[in-house]
Amino acid sequence: MLGHSKAFLLMRTQLHRYAGCDVQVLIEGETGTGKELAAREIHYASERRDRPFVPVNCGALPDNLIENELFGHERGAYTDAKSAQPGLIDHARGGTLFLDEVDTLSSKAQVTLLRFLENSEYRPVGGCVARISSARVIAATNGCLNTQVAAGLFRRDLQYRLNALHVHLPPLRERTGDVPMLAEHFLRVVAQRLGGPVKQWTGAALQVLDTHRWPGNVRELENVVLRAYLGTEDALIDASMLSELIVATEPDATSQCEDGCPEEADLHYLEAKHHAMHTFERGYLVSLMKRAQGNISAAARLSGTERRQLGKLLKKHGIATAPFRFQS
């Protein structure tokens, strides 16, 4: 994690302070702010650094197999269970279990996780003997769990368990002065990764990067740097090529157009086109998932698209399916 802004340094100091407190941590921050990096920062600054760090995307956990995925199973638990299989909690023994997108867990999965967090006790599927986990749990969400709880989409008692310590990752637009440092760092990394020549930004290019609001945060900046490096043969990357690489995107729900949403007429043609398409796609997907009550297979049938393609679109727009399952 790189940065020298006041907001960044305060956040990093908080991460290192929490590394010495061996309890659950909840990390909240917009998409692309580096929540997994923050969780790793806590893990590797703690006494657990020599034990495993196990990241889990909660949105990818099958609802009907949640206990099997987390707790594992014993031999004979299922027809095809010819041998015992450890779960994610076993893999994280003595280390850290990182639950990313924890707000996407279904109501059933939330109950399962809550029971485990209450006393760190679990039982593999098909097992008779309870076990005690020594893993530390760090959870993350790109939304706000308070909002989810108020809407009845997330259990308040589970929020209390996860939120023993809380970290908010500042968006890149609030990290004054960090964009030029990160842009230069990513440019060096790209050159090393691709085995290509070292390139530099012009002062004008860095100024353009520094004034962009970066709704996709550090991840968006990293992608723009990669495209800029590949898009020029020159040793210097000028501002002239950035207008086509930096396109306006719909702000996250967490930012809610703080300074007002741009009028399409004020945008460059390509930016306006992208903004309109993005807005249409997201609105259509939200409406579709409401109709299908969060069932991706049903939504694919309703929209006449392939399930895999629909899943990619939902991931692109950061739309979780779990909240729609609670709606009637």
Structural overview:
With about 325 residues, this protein is an alpha/beta fold. It folds into three domains: about 5-170, 3-Layer(aba) Sandwich (Rossmann fold); about 175-245, Orthogonal Bundle (Helicase, Ruva Protein, domain 3), CATH 1.10.8; about 265-325, Arc Repressor Mutant, subunit A. The protein has 14 helices and eleven strands. It has helices at about 5-20, 35-45, 65-70, 90, 105-120, 145-150, 155-160, 180-195, 205-210, 215-230, 240-245, 270-290, 295-305, 305-315, and strands at about 25-30, 55, 70-75, 85, 95-100, 120, 130, 135-140, 165-170, 200, 235. The strands form four sheets. Strands 2-5-8-1-9 form a five-stranded parallel β-sheet. Helix 1 (about 5-20) packs across helix 2 (about 35-45), helix 5 packs across helix 7 and helix 12 (about 270-290) crosses helix 13. It starts with 5 loop residues before the first helix and ends in a 12-residue tail after the last helix. Residues about 250-260 have low confidence and may be disordered.
CATH architecture of the largest domain: 3-Layer(aba) Sandwich
Helix content: 40-55%
CATH superfamily of the largest domain: P-loop containing nucleotide triphosphate hydrolases
Low-confidence stretches: 248-262
- End-to-end separation in angstroms reads 42 Å
- Supply the number of structural domains: 3
Summing up helix and strand content along with how strands pair, one would put the structural category as alpha/beta
- Quaternary state reads single chain
Q: What order do the strands of the largest sheet run in, or round the barrel if closed?
A: 2-5-8-1-9
Question: What is the number of beta strands?
Answer: 11
Organism: Dyella koreensis
Protein name: Sigma-54-dependent Fis family transcriptional regulator
Domain Sigma-54 factor interaction: 1-230
InterPro entries: AAA+_ATPase, AAA_lid_NorR, Homeodomain-like_sf, HTH_Fis, P-loop_NTPase, Sigma_54_int, Sigma_54_int_dom_CS
